[in-house]
Design goal:
51% helix, Rossmann fold, Calcium-transporting ATPase, cytoplasmic transduction domain A, 6-stranded antiparallel beta sheet, alpha+beta, single chain
């Protein structure tokens, strides 16, 4: 509350209290039944009065002020029924607000819980378990298959594929071998690795992500209630009408009647009822707003930022092309490769099997299959020896085929698997992370919604980022970013006064999601930490639900404001009648209830289905 507002409100409120206090000097006979109602009013009303006063003295001018004055006046003037109706409306509105707000984010706690707790350190030939906090730089550690890398380190022995998508957004597993640098939080694949710690756990990449999320969430200031923004002008208006009523009549009961009909229940009820309806409407579309502030803020964002992997793309490599070498045909290469890959648990193996089943189902069985972790697999299929893997692996198992691949120079750049059959080069399988099919539709919706800027932030290489950006129609690209780099870009836009929505799906996006005005997590395949750090969670594997959520947000707040203005307009008219003595306090309380019902019925429209193409933006 500004000094000017405080100077205007506090003296007026104090004068009203003094005036009402004089009513105590007037003897008022109290029938016995009234004392029961008065006791109930004291027990239920004083907590409301105390909470509002406490907020007022902390400098928060809230819509509750008029309700507090009405309750206080009802106590002083022995009008318990009118006061109890006001208490009912006030406490009911507060309960709805608490329900709409939802639970606070547990992002930092979830991040810390997911961090590795135990490291395996070599002590000579023995492996000892110890807390990750006890690891020092230079320690030789064992990372077993399926375990998380406990600290930033360099590989000294072993070979495996390591999932780094949670940290960098790169969908293709990193081929880890001696001298490969690994970041904490990476997930080891199929082979054991011996690593040497290059940083303490508390100074490694995963710990930096935790600190970034903690800092981002702490820096977010709470959103002022919509009701309180309207209260800045409605409260002085109410006090002015109370003053006029006193000057006209000198009757404190008439002042109470003005306060009762002015009790800002349209302010207190309209927003939470509308928000709850909007939350329910969004939930039916598989969009979860974690709190009411997110629903209010999303519709006001004008800058949209996107991660690439798993957001604009499907988030995992697929078979993009099969290049066969005569006399082999593409379908035959894929069929034989899929047969031996059926027994492998590697991500790329599953991708090959899916493509093979789609092109040549059913697949023949494979026998005597041997897998070299992180390198390739070979076995017998229909009496032929089939090998699939890196060119170095083919060179060791079927050297003549490797020479054939070098002679053909086939397959192009990027991630590839080479297929050899009976020591003969058969073909090359190329992988790529495919862009979502609905990108053009989605970004046309965003432009129609008036988004001024759209950016792509990714830890992936720039060439891959540009391919996705072209498909989406985005011109502003920031590639090769670690999580702190994404945070810097988002924070820079927020500091410029822009309202930013950030959409992502990986752990590396969590700090940026927390930094943005509104963070949206795509969690169709399990959101985990990303969902905890976000304000909005999309449970469907459909990017267009994000634009739908924007429409629901804007429609919800538009209806909330309609309800507020209608309710305040009716209350203002009723205040005029009460000031002239035409409405007694109890009748005023009933009239205010009717106004509240109309406000609630209008606000409930937010829960009704509304086709996207008919929604006003």
């Amino acid at each position: 509350m500004t000094a000017r507002v405080r100077a205007a409100i506090l003296p007026a409120a104090a004068a009203l209290f003094i005036t009402l206090g004089l009513a105590l000097l007037r003897p008022v006979p109290t029938p016995w039944p009234n004392r029961v109602w008065e006791t109930g009013l004291l027990l239920t009303g004083l907590p409301v009065v105390w909470r509002t006063l406490a907020g007022l003295f902390r400098g928060r001018l809230a819509a509750d002020l008029v309700a507090m004055l009405a309750i206080t006046a009802a106590i002083i003037l022995t009008q318990p029924l009118a006061g109890l109706i006001v208490v009912l409306m006030q406490t009911g509105g507060e309960a709805l607000e608490r329900y709409a707000e939802g639970r606070a984010s547990d992002a930092v706690r979830e991040l810390e819980a997911a961090a590795p707790r135990i490291a395996h350190r070599y002590d000579g030939a023995t492996v000892l378990d110890l807390p990750v906090e006890a690891v020092v730089v230079g320690d030789r550690l064992l990372v077993r298959p399926g375990e998380m890398v406990p600290c930033d380190a360099i590989v000294v022995a072993g070979e495996s594929h390591v999932d780094i998508s949670r940290l960098t957004g790169e969908p293709v597993p990193l081929h880890a071998r001696p001298e490969t640098h690994l970041m904490s939080g990476s997930l080891n694949g199929e082979g054991p690795l011996t690593i040497r710690a290059t940083a303490l756990a508390r100074e490694s990449q995963y710990a930096r992500i935790v600190d970034l999320v903690r800092t981002a969430q702490a820096s977010k200031s709470p959103l002022q209630r919509l009701a309180d923004r309207y209260a800045i002008w409605f409260t002085p208006l109410t006090l002015a009408v109370c003053g006029i009523a006193w000057l006209l009549s000198g009757d404190a009961v008439r002042v109470l009647a003005v306060l009762v009909v002015a009790t800002p229940c349209p302010l207190i009820l309209a927003t939470p009822v509308a928000v709850i309806g909007g939350l329910n409407r969004a939930a039916r579309r598989s969009v979860v707003f974690r709190h009411g502030d997110a629903l209010e803020q999303l519709g006001s964002t004008t800058v949209a930022i996107f991660d690439k992997t798993g957001t604009l793309t499907i988030g995992r490599p697929e078979v993009a092309a099969v290049h066969s070498i005569p006399p082999f045909q593409e379908r035959e290469v894929l069929r034989l490769a899929g047969a031996v890959e059926q027994v492998s648990g590697h991500l790329l193996a599953r991708t090959v099997v899916e493509a093979a089943l789609a092109a040549a189902a059913p697949l023949p069985p494979a026998h005597d299959v041997v897998e070299a972790p992180g390198q390739g697999v070979w076995g017998q299929v229909e009496g032929r020896t089939v090998a699939v893997g890196a060119l170095s692996f083919i060179g060791r198992t079927q050297p003549q085929a490797a020479e054939g691949f070098r002679a053909q120079a086939n397959g192009g750049d990027g991630l590839r698997a080479f297929v050899a059959v009976d020591n003969q080069a058969a073909g090359v399988i190329a992988y790529a992370d495919r862009e979502r099919a609905d990108l053009k539709e989605f970004f046309s919706q965003l432009r129609a919604l008036g988004y001024q800027r759209m950016l792509l932030l990714t830890g992936d290489h720039r060439a891959n980022a540009e391919r996705a950006a072209i498909a989406a129609g985005i011109s502003e690209i920031h590639a090769d970013l670690l999580p702190e780099g994404k945070v810097e870009v988002v924070r820079g836009l927020v500091d410029e006064g822009m309202k930013v929505v950030m959409v992502g799906d990986g752990t590396n996006d969590a700090p940026a999601l927390s930094t943005a005005t509104v963070g949206v997590a795509l969690a169709a395949h399990g959101g985990g930490i990303t969902a905890e750090a976000a304000d909005v969670v999309v449970l469907a594997d459909d990017l267009t639900r994000v634009s739908e959520a924007v429409v629901i947000s804007r429609r919800t707040m538009r209806i909330a404001r309609q309800s507020i203005w209608a309710g305040l307009g009716l209350s203002t008219v009723a205040m005029g009648f009460a000031a002239w003595g035409l409405i007694p306090p109890i009748v005023g309380a009933v009239l205010q209830e009717l106004i509240d019902v109309s406000v609630i019925l209008n606000a409930l429209r937010t829960s009704m289905p509304m086709p996207y193409d008919q929604a006003k933006v």
